[in-house]
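Thread: "does anyone have the structure for this chain?"

Original post by V.I.:
We have the sequence but no experimental structure in hand. Need at least a predicted one for the grant figures.
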Amino acid sequence: DCNFFAPCDIMLLYCRALCPKERRPLAPSTKLALANSLKKLLQKKFLDDITVKELVEDCEVNRQTFYYHFQDIYDLLHWFLEHEAEAALSGAKDWREALLASLRYIQDEHMVIYHIYRSGGRDHLLDCPFHPLARAAVRSGLQACAADIPVSGGERDFLAAFYSHAIAGVM
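Reply from O.Q.:
Generated one for you, tokens below.
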């Protein structure tokens, strides 16, 4: 009446006891998984208090994987803000909808934004944390309003940068 698989079952139970944490599948993109982890941590703590170690442990990847995709946490933050802006504004048909979507995002994610803004790390970004949202709203507005006006690419870029900084400063 000997059970041949009993040693395997015992080994499986032993491994589960040592590693009680279930393996979660990574997001379709490792970058996105790291960004989601950053967002989760930013809901609880300031950017300055988040470490690469926390991010990689949460994603269950190694440090080399993090540094393969990003130079540092601020590089991840910049990618995260660009990705969030794109997602928040994806359904906007005109600049008004884009601006409302930006403000809605700020309201919904106020703790994330607060923890970024109140961090000394924000100085590592060239722009303020709201700049990607403002830039996307301005680009959408310029495309709608100036579609039939002959404006050079350089002038359009200048206007987008100028109004982006103005809107980001107000936000």
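V.I.: this helps a lot. The mean pLDDT is 76.
O.Q.: and The CA atoms of residues 57 and 63 lie 9 Å apart.
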